[in-house]
Here is the input.
Amino acid sequence: MKQNFLLFFLIFSINTFSQEEAKKDSLWTTRGNVAILLNQTGFSDWVGGGTNNFSGTLKFDYEWEYRDKGWDWLTNFESAYGLAKYKNAPFARKIDDRILIQSIVGKEFTKNLSFSAFFNFTSQLGNGYKYKKDSNNNEIRELTTKIFSPAYFQLGSGFLWKKDETLWVNYSPIATRLILVNKKFTKDLTGNDTYFGVLPNKSSRYELGANLTFHSEGNLLENIKYKQDLKLFSNYLEDASNIDLDYLVQIEVDINPLLSTQLIFQLIYDDNAISRLQVREVFGVGVQLKLD
Here is the structure.
C-alpha cells in the first residue's frame, strides 16, 4: 500500500506542478526529460519463493544545441541514480548511478561533415560496495567506489559526420583521457595491482589514443522510441588493440503523456576496471516530464 500511495503521489505532484519548456529560435534548440522509474514486487505464502523488494530510479537528461553559419555545438547532460531495498536486507543496493557531460563542436567544411572537437566527463554520484557474508552469515559490505572516484575526462579533435541531431558519428584520431581516483583506494595496493588502471599511491592515470562516438535515436513504432550511444577508446600508449567499449541503449514506450515503460541496457568493457564484459539492465514503469 505504501508503494501504491507513493506512486499515486508522484503522479499527482508531477501532473500538478509540471511545466513545459520551449526555447527554440534560429540559433538554439533545447530538449530534456525527467523520469522516475518504480518497481515493486511482493510475495505472501508464495510456494515458488521470492523476496519482497522495492526499487526506484531518478533520471534527468537535458540537451542544448547551437547552430549558426556552419557551426554546430551540441552539449548534453545525463544523470541517473537508483536504489533497491530487499525485505530483511540490512542495506539498500544501488541499481543505477551515472553522470555524463558531453560537448561536441563542429565547423562544417562540406555537406554533413565538419572539423570537430569534443569534451566528455563520466563518473558516478554515490558510493559503491562489494557485498559478502561474515563468519556469522551476516551481510557486510566493502567500499569500492566513491563520488567522482573513478572520474573520466576525455578531450580530442577530429571529424564529425552529422545527418541531424538524431544521427551522428564523431571520430577523434587524437584524444586524451585522464582517469582520476581517490587515493584512499590506491594507498594499500602492492606490486602490479591497480585501481581502474591507476598505480599504487597514485591518484590519476593519463592515456593518449583515439575515440569514436556514435549516436542514433528515433521511433520504432509511433509510441516506441529508442536512443543508443556507442563509445570506443583505444589507448596508443598501452595495448592499442585492446579497445574500451561503452554501449547504452534506452527504449521507451509511451503509455500516455505522463507514464511510460522504459528499458535500459548497457554493456561496458574496460580491462582497467575488470577484464570481463559488464552488463546492466533496468526495466520499469516511469513517471516522466518532458522538457521540450
